[in-house]
Design a protein that fits this description.
Layout: E1 6-9, E2 13-17, E3 23-28, E4 31-34, E5 39-42, H1 46-63, E6 70-73, E7 78-82, E8 85-86, E9 89-96, H2 99-105, E10 112-122, E11 131-132, H3 134-139, H4 145-167, E12 171-185, E13 188-194, E14 202-206, H5 216-219, H6 225-235, H7 243-249
Helix pairs in contact: 1-6
Bound molecules: thymidine-5'-phosphate (TMP).
Thymidine-5'-phosphate is lined by residues 92, 98-101, 129, 175-177, 201-203.
Length: 257
């Protein structure tokens, strides 16, 4: 069988041409980077866990009317998604102060924010994903006013849904990053949630101990990174014990069919 055509390789994922027109296969790697690739490492089993976690969260979001690119999971490391044109903006939603917000504004980590805060960052490795405003987005045409309105509305709905879901399993959704895509169908275009939602792109703290169960463990050299990701999957109820060995076994890329 001919090897599938690779469309794009990012830091944590590879995209391959999908089996049908308008589809893409999203392959989850174990590679982890932080600080714009300055720090690199491997979190064994991360790809398998993030594939599962993102499937679970995107499916839940689809169920409450948030459109996403997710179609179905194909195997341990791959999922089939809709081919979308990625909007070059990272949308961050924050409920609790942490990370760059704490650094930039001097607000201590863990401070509950008076309201959810939505921020935009330009997706640009060369510029180190700078913080931008709506003015920049509209002036430079990175998104239209309608795109932006849709993105914010979906981001807020996603925050409501995910905050409740994580609260139910004893986790605080501190903040998270979303990416959106334009899905074209006939003459129509709609904005859908794209990329992934996982402990790579969220901050998740245990509700009672504030233990970090996300990529900050890797960024800050805290250790037990795999265990943290596995704990999130376990609490979500998507990690039967028998899968633990499969995760360790599923190392190489696989064919789609
Ligand atoms: P920050 O506090 O470093 O700006 O991160 C905010 C949220 O966005 C946090 O949940 C981690 C996530 N994030 C990404 O997914 N990718 C990135 O490149 C960065 C910097 C943050």
């Amino acid at each position: 069988m001919a090897r599938r055509r690779q469309l794009y390789e990012g830091k944590a994922k590879v995209l391959f041409e999908g089996p049908e027109p308008g589809t893409v296969v999203q392959y989850f790697k174990d590679d982890a980077t932080a600080f714009n690739n300055e720090k690199q490492g491997v979190i064994t089993g991360k790809g398998v866990l993030n594939n599962r976690i993102s499937e679970h969260l995107m499916t839940g979001l689809n169920g409450v009317g948030v459109p996403t690119h997710f179609i179905r999971r194909l195997n341990m490391r791959e999922q089939l998604v809709r081919d979308v044109e990625i909007v070059p903006i990272e949308v961050v939603v924050r409920n609790v102060a942490a990370g760059s917000l704490s650094r930039r504004l001097g607000i201590p980590e863990g401070t509950i924010l008076p309201r959810a805060i939505v921020e935009y960052y330009l997706k640009s490795d060369e510029l180190n994903d700078p913080l931008i405003t709506e003015e920049h987005i509209l002036a430079f045409g990175w998104a239209s006013q309608q795109d932006l309105d849709d993105m914010v509305q979906l981001a807020v709905r996603t925050n409501d849904f995910l905050s409740g879901l994580f609260q139910g399993i004893g986790l605080k959704l501190v903040d998270f990053k979303l990416e959106f895509g334009r899905q074209y169908e006939d003459e129509h275009m709609r904005i859908v949630l794209a990329d992934e939602i996982s402990p790579d792109s969220c901050r998740l703290w245990d509700m009672t101990t504030n233990e970090k169960l996300d990529k900050d463990r890797f960024r800050r050299d805290m250790g037990d990174v795999e265990d943290a990701y596995r704990e999130v999957a376990r609490r979500l109820g998507i990690l039967p014990e028998s899968d633990v060995q499969d995760i360790q076994d599923a190392q190489g890329p696989r064919e789609v069919r």
